[in-house]
Design a protein that fits this description.
alpha/beta; 9 helices; single chain; two-stranded antiparallel ribbon; globular; binds zinc ion
């Protein structure tokens, strides 16, 4: 006979591993497992101050870090996919689009802005991974194509920051056509003798890798970014071989000659700036008044 009776069940230990720190104040680095104060991370361009792990950043943040004074003019923000195939998987594509637009605040997976990069007037297209995995559908294709065409018109260099899971499945073959469309525009940019710098960030995969991501006059990757066409599991199953360590990571690809440079995010702007200058792009002094070239007839 028991002397005491427990009226209530004993408190069970929490099975959740993560500590219940208020969200948004501290973040645990996946690279070194250190706890970092969120503000420290933000002032360090979302790179871990201890181990230089590069956290993924959004399109707007990317434009802010690349363009002078964090200022740019956005182009074609209003383009929205019309769901041409009326596609439904586990839920209708229209629903997915609506919730993505609400949660991300952008209308599709790329933001295009023109501004000055290290003084050089530049058009930058940055992909937004949180919008359906940064997937490339008709809107991404059209916005990037227009960005390149605008660059040809205004004689400015193009920088595309890739961050994408590849083509957008919900738009089927139409999304695959964007690969050819963007590559065609890049060929015209090349013929106009204007520079294009591709920045590959974590992750850059699928149709994006298979098209414009690898076509830069200079292909720069961020450290330890996953860059590839098919995923490692698919490749392993196909070739029936174990893949080497670091496969499909920036450093591995640099070693094999697939990318030209691996650059820390904190030095990215300076590196792109000097590369553009090397390729003949000239900086302008004042942001508002663009002085016309002296003695040039138009
Ligand atoms: Zn770290």
């Amino acid at each position: 006979m028991a002397w005491f009776k427990k009226a209530r069940k004993p408190m069970a230990a929490s099975t959740e591993k993560a500590s219940r720190v208020p969200e948004g104040l501290w973040v645990k680095c996946p690279g070194c497992s250190q706890i970092i104060y969120n503000k420290d991370l933000a002032t360090n361009q979302n790179v871990c101050p201890k181990c230089a792990h590069h956290f993924r950043i959004g399109a707007a943040e990317r434009l802010r870090t690349l363009l002078d004074d964090g200022a740019w003019t956005e182009h074609d923000p209003g383009l929205i996919s019309t769901d041409p195939l009326e596609f439904t998987d586990t839920r209708p594509y229209k629903d997915r689009l609506r919730t993505s637009i609400e949660t991300t605040g952008v209308n599709d997976a790329v933001v295009v802005g023109s501004g000055r990069l290290d003084g050089i007037p530049t058009i930058v297209a940055a992909m937004e991974y949180t919008f359906i995995g940064g997937s490339m559908g008709v809107v991404v294709g059209e916005k990037i194509t227009r960005a390149i065409e605008r660059a040809i018109e205004t004689r400015t260099p193009v920088v595309i920051v890739c961050c994408s899971g590849g083509a957008r499945m919900m738009e089927g073959a139409l999304s695959l056509m964007q690969m050819a469309k963007i590559c065609g525009a890049l060929a015209r940019l090349d013929r106009a003798r204007l520079p294009y710098v591709s920045v590959l960030t974590d992750p850059t995969t699928g149709g994006v890798t298979a098209s414009f991501a690898m076509l830069g006059d200079l292909n720069i990757a961020e450290p330890k970014a996953l860059i590839g066409f098919a995923g490692p599991r698919v490749i392993e199953q196909t070739i029936r071989q174990k893949l080497p360590d670091g496969f499909q990571r920036s450093e591995f690809l640099l070693d094999k000659g697939m990318v030209d440079m691996v650059v820390d995010r904190r030095e990215l702007k300076a590196v792109i700036g000097s590369a553009l200058r090397f390729m003949g792009a000239a900086p302008v002094a004042a942001p508002a008044a663009t002085p016309a070239a002296v003695g040039q007839e138009s």
